[in-house]
Amino acid sequence: MSIQHGGAGCFFGSRVSARTYNAALSACAAAGKLELALVLMAELQEEELIPNLMTYRYAIQSCEESGQWELALDLVAEMQSVKTEPKQLIFSSVAAACRRAGLEELASSYDWKDVSVS
């Protein structure tokens, strides 16, 4: 599969599954490539694929790496709007993004959170 960027169609050369997007998002998280992760999230939705817990996990981990705590919280809210319930690993990444931004008190409110945020 060839990878394209720009123009009509998706980043990948042909229609792919949410699993493929998740793998690419995982790589973005590992490499700290937030911008690319956001492009992939948008394309996944344009392709009418449904993001799942792992999709959001990797996107939020990309936020964690760059300290984009507000974006991480926006993604948690989006998760809830599509009825995907955040798990502890999601809240841990939100807490880490807050810490990276120097917001220790806010971060501590997401440590070991068992309920969804409003």
**DSSP summary, beta strand count:** 0
Q: Indicate the overall shape.
A: globular
What is the strand content? under 5%
Helix count equals 6
Distance between the termini: 40 Å
- The portion of residues assigned to helices is 55-70%
Tell me the radius of gyration.
14 Å
Q: How many independent structural domains? A: 1
Q: What is the chain-wise order of helices and strands?
A: HHHHHH
- Mean pLDDT, nearest integer? 84
In oligomeric terms, what are we looking at? single chain
Largest sheet: none
Task: Report the uncertain regions.
Answer: 1-9
The structure class reads mainly alpha
Overview of this protein structure:
The chain has 118 residues and is mostly helical. The protein has one domain (18-108). It has helices spanning 18-31, 34-46, 53-66, 69-81, 88-100, 104-108. Helix 1 (18-31) runs antiparallel to helix 2 (34-46), helix 3 packs antiparallel against helix 4 and helix 4 runs antiparallel to helix 5 (88-100). The protein is globular, with a radius of gyration of 14 Å. The termini are far apart. This is PPR10 protein. InterPro entries: PPR_rpt (IPR002885), TPR-like_helical_dom_sf (IPR011990). Keywords: Repeat.
